[in-house]
Design a protein that fits this description.
Blueprint lengths: L5 H30 L6 H15 L14 H10 L13 H11 L2
Helix pairs in contact: 1-2
């Protein structure tokens, strides 16, 4: 993978904030559902929620290595973890979209 264009890098720095918010909102809803499940005990709810938080805080959309050298790998991790879709890349350069799509569809 070659270096990223400056415009793609700048856009990524803006988009990652949006993607993180969207992803964390989804996780928060999952946790809220667990915490309000009256069918299980308070302790079970607590530990189930803690397990989700522990797992999700390690996801690519929560912890992002913000270096140009890992930019494209980050996009692929975000795709793999279903934090984004190929459609989320539509504002990026055509070259970047094609490169990521080729790798992703292998």
């Amino acid at each position: 993978m070659e270096d990223c264009k400056e415009s793609d890098w700048k856009l990524f720095r803006v988009k990652i904030v949006e993607w993180q918010e969207r992803y964390i909102e989804k996780v928060n809803k999952k946790i809220a559902k667990i915490l309000t499940d009256e069918k299980i005990s308070a302790a079970e709810r607590f530990w189930k929620a803690e397990k989700v938080i522990y797992r999700e805080k390690k996801s690519a959309c929560v912890i992002v290595d913000m270096r140009r050298s890992t930019f494209k790998l980050n996009l692929l991790r975000l795709l793999k973890e279903k934090a984004i879709t190929l459609e989320d890349l539509s504002d990026f350069s055509t070259e970047l979209q094609e490169e990521i799509r080729k790798i992703w569809e292998r």
